[in-house]
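Hey,
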Amino acid sequence: MTKQEKTQIIENLAAKLADSKHFYLADTSELPSEKTSALRRMCFNQNIELIVVKNTLLRKALERTNDGEYSPMYDALKGPVSIMFSESNSAPAKLIKEFRKDGKKPLLKAAYVEQSVYMGDESLDALASIKSRDELIADVVALLQSPARNVISALQGAGGTLSGLVKTLSERPE
């Protein structure tokens, strides 16, 4: 690979990293070809982009992209590394968990999710349970609607009682 090709790969990776709010680094080595194909197919079906890249090129792209925010991830750049890009913060973790029902790979090396770095395979369960921004907004809206619904239903239920009480009091002679 020429120096110009490497520079182009680094620039493309840096642009992709800058545009991505979350990405995962995984070890997909030692997977047989049919399992690798199945993993790629699952990634494609779930809108997750899977890229295998050399560690030195990825490190240079990480260094170009951010002022040290990715530096904890440099330790994960040993051995084979695949990058998983996704619009959903938890989709790659869920995919890895689902895929590992049949084996031990892929292993999670590191993840960058919502400006936080997660290191190691032990973070997989936590990452899989993270709610997306839209899910969190829906939860907040539901929490805010609940008390309002209770007040409205109480007023509607007591509406007949209140109007009857007001009518009785207005008709009462002084």
